[in-house]
Write the structure tokens for this entry.
Amino acid sequence: MHHATLCIPPHLLPKKSWVKLMGDLENHFGDDASLDENDTKVILDFLVKNSAENSTMQGSLNFLKSIEDKDIIAMSQTQFWKKTHRDIPKDLFNHNDIKSKANCKACHTDIEKGLIENENIKDISSFN
């Protein structure tokens, strides 16, 4: 089996987002992340089982409400993400240590644990 690294915890996206994302791994944000059929099924089952609908964490509920019925697979496309990041200068996402809105770990150092609360966010002045 391949080793996969999740950039975000499964409880921050709803089931339908995980199904859509895993259904088109050949075009995974500009990369080919294709897996064999069995690995894809195992990972998708895990993601669906642990999706936002099955979580009681506030971040999960906020993203779930923000996504509603939209076909969104990138958290940065949600209104909740846009609202919570609105005060961050746009050019900061191009910083060499960040490079993209998709690099959550640059600021949310404990994101793999699902910790996205303010006390778990790196001080953005460290990127200056």
Remarks:
- The mean pLDDT is 85.
- The chain is about 30% helix and 0% strand.
- The radius of gyration is 15 Å.
